[in-house]
User: What shape does this take?
Amino acid sequence: MQLPDQTVARLQRLPCLHPGTRVQFRLPDASDFYVLVSQQEGGSAAVSHHGEAENPALVLEMSNATLGAILDGRLSARHAFLLGDIRYTGDRDLAAALADLFPAA
Assistant: This one.
C-alpha cells in the first residue's frame, strides 16, 4: 500500500520532520511499508517504500482495514488510536502530527 499523494505532500511540510526521517507502517494483514523523507533540491520529498525501514523514528502498527478507513476519511486517526486500533512506538510528537495529516471522519 502507498499513501495518497496529497498525504505525502502534507507529510513533507511537517515541521517536526527532518531529512532522513523514516516512518514504518506495520500491517499484519498486508505488506509493510515505510515512508522516507529526504532532502531534495527545492525542499524535501517523502517516498513510500515496501518492506522494513532501518532505524525508523516512528513505527505505526494497525490493520490494513484500519489504514484504508483512515485514508478514505471514514475513520479519524485519533479515534482509531483511542480505540486501540493503532499502536505506535517511537517519536510521540511525530505520531501526534501524523494524526492531523489524514482526513477527519
